[in-house]
Amino acid sequence: KKDNLERKDEYIWEIPKEYKGCMSVPGRLYLSEKLVDVVEEDTYEQIANVACLPGIKNYSLAMPEAHLGYGFPIGGVAALDRDEGVISPGGVGFDINCGVRLLKTNLKKEDVKGKEKELIENLFNKVPSGVGSESKLNLSNSELDILVENGAQWAVENGYGKESDIKFCEENGKMQQADSSLISKKAKGRGKSQVGTLGSGNHFLEVQYIDEIFDEEAAKTFGLNEDYVTVMIHTGSRGFGHQVCTEHVNEMEKAAKKYGIDLPDKQLACAPSGTKEAEDYFKAMCCAANYAWANRQVITSWTREAFHDFFDSEIKLDLVYDVAHNVAKEETHKINKKESKKDYFVHRKGATRAFGPGHSSIPKKYQKTGQPALIPGNMGDSSFIVKGTEYAMENTFGSTCHGAGRKMSRKKAKGKYWGGTVQKELSEKGIYVKATHGSVIAEEAPGAYKNPTEVVDVAHNAGISEKVGRLQPMAVAKG
Ligand code: 5GP
Ligand code: MN
Ligand code: MN
Questions:
Q1: For 215-371, where are the E strands, in sequence order?
Q2: Do the domain assignments include residue 431?
Q3: 302 alpha carbon – ligand 2 mean position (Å)
Q4: What are the Cα distances from residue 18, in Å, to 54, 56, 79, 268, 461?
Q5: Residue 308 is a catalytic residue
Q6: Which residues does a 6 A CB cutoff place in the pocket of ligand 1?
Q7: 53 by DSSP, 3-state: which?
Q8: pLDDT per residue as tens digits for the range 58-114
């Protein structure tokens, strides 16, 4: 546990593989001294457990926001050998392809100032939000099949957005291996009723402005300028992804037994690469990932409508980038000069892909800069746009953090904060927050999260991503 941590460098800490008999690699965490104390003991245990998965390469990694998750920690990254490893739904999470996208506008901060409340009301009217919110689309089963096989591309083909949006989504908003024949009736039912909904709690639609640029050249490439307004959308695959995950966790528990995999934690249920269980999960996971991209794309289209109705139809809202932060990907990595390229299932669970300059998977426009990655903070504090690095390619399979990360559980936050008070305090700071319930605002109180600057600075100083710009909240729609 904490006493077993070895400090390797200012921001690198390791759990030696001797800590647990089943570990085949060490655990490696990117943390500042301050953050080491914030991480719960159980999270360290989860990092050690992931190091026991067959075929894990190099390290069981934890990004600076690491906290407790289902099986894998949030902030966990693991590359599992494509031939000799396993695939584990716990390494992806229940909200498959939960992710973030950022739109840049040609509005300035002053254009929005004083109009926050009305603007949010307009957005709330366009985008169904909250736990039980229902889709405005009335899709048939066969339409949903096409949607989950085509992701954001389905949305654009059906009038939600523009062709150019596609190239600024990770994977172009579509994972090719998706196979809708593997989706249960129940998942389809949950999916149909929620396309184009934000969800609740941690999911949000936030109007922000850029208050600082750290890297002029990258900011120019990403099209970011100080004082301009941006919109950040954070949501995932809703009940559809949850259902896919639940069903496959059950199958994987059986598979782990069947293939004789000894697991330190049942929540790490997995199946060896190439088995039917592994392939079926992966193809279904791709469907859920595509669902999430379609969801964010449809919401983007309604966000544009709300801005056009409220300001003027000439207002631009261009997609900077859309990143997934709960997903497993088949990727090729060359870890060091001595080794040759190899294929892995890279699991990122509450972690963001952050590929460095020159990688063929990132848009042409961003080739020289590296991939933009989006790191939300909380509804009362800074969020960041960063870029991927060569260092990340060699050390974290091209990954960085996905957020500030929680400091306390939802339950604890509800006991500590009262929604009305939090809302008032934010309003005094000039931030208008609207949620369907006061309890959501309490659970999501800024104090329930780690300091975003601290987390992003660790990633920056360690070198796994570099800061490009900082965003401040003006108005937030929480589900
Ligand atoms: P998760 O996907 O882990 O629930 O959330 C990702 C990150 O979003 C969290 O770790 C947190 O730092 C950030 N976050 C949660 N709520 C908000 C919000 O309302 N606004 C912003 N900007 N960030 C948030
Ligand atoms: Mn989510
Ligand atoms: Mn998320």
A1: 228-235, 271-272, 317-324, 326-333, 342-349, 351-353
A2: no
A3: 20
A4: 16, 16, 20, 20, 28
A5: no
A6: 65, 74, 98, 202, 204, 206, 350, 376-379, 383, 402-405, 444, 449, 473, 476, 478
A7: coil
A8: 999 999 999 999 999 999 999 999 999 999 999 999 999 999 999 999 999 999 999
* DSSP state at residue 169: B
Per the rule left: phi > 0, alpha: psi between -120 and 50, beta: everything else, 145 is alpha
Task: Calculate Rg over the CA atoms of the chain.
Answer: 21
Query: Which of the residues 67, 242, 402, 460 is marked catalytic?
Result: 402
Which one of the ligands is nearest to 96 CA?
2
> How far apart are alpha carbons 462 and 354 in whole angstroms?
14
- Hey, whose CA ends up nearest to atom 17 of ligand 1? 378
In this predicted model, what pLDDT tens digit does every residue of 211-237 receive, in sequence order? 999 999 999 999 999 999 999 999 999
User: Closest residue (by CA) to atom 23 of ligand 1?
Assistant: 378
Q: Give, in degrees to the nearest 5, the angle at Cα 454 between 453 and 458.
A: 110
The domain total for the chain is 1
Q: Which domain holds residue 182?
A: 2-407+449-478
444 assigned to some structural domain? no
Q: ipTM of this model?
A: 0.99
- CATH code, 389: 3.90.1860.10
**Token code pair at residue 238:** 């809703």
CA–CA distance, 239 with 237 (Å, rounded to integer)? 7
